[in-house]
Specification:
The structure is a single chain. A hairpin with a 2-residue loop joins strand 4 and strand 5 (about 80). This protein has a 5-stranded mixed beta sheet with strand order 2-8-7-4-5, with no helix packed on it. It is rod-shaped, with a radius of gyration of 27 Å. The protein folds into 2 domains: about 1-35; about 45-120, Sandwich (Immunoglobulin-like), CATH 2.60.40. Helix content is about 25%, strand content about 40%. The protein has 2 helices and 8 strands, in the order H-H-E-E-E-E-E-E-E-E. The protein has helices at about 10-35, 40, and strands at about 45-50, 55, 60-70, 70-75, 80, 85-95, 95-105, 110-120. By secondary structure, the protein is an alpha+beta fold.
Length: about 130
Amino acid sequence: MPTFFSANDTYPLRRLIKYWLIAIVSLLTIGFVVFQARFLITGPQIILRDLPQGPQNSRQITIIGDAYNISHLWLNDRPIYTDTKGRFEEAIVLENGYTIATLRAQDRYGRTTKVNAPLVYMPASTIK
């Protein structure tokens, strides 16, 4: 019957510590790989901040937000750019009435996501 320690093993504690260290390093490596894989799993993300609500009486507004896990970002099919932290700030000119601003992002694997922001422009003379 094989045993973990042989009778002539002079350093059984050292062998036990070596096996435990190998197991711990392996588990930490696997945990790190799974943790970093979250970017592959979630895909591109767009988060809008400070989006104006309700009718606007200013023709030009600024769309502010964050984009994560992206390689390309478009606002109404026009490329826009983020800073190193993934933040973007882009001005858009509203047409009279109802406008939809469409943000589309793509990651390096070709997966896309889209966010639509409905906006309404009413000149100050028509708001009562």
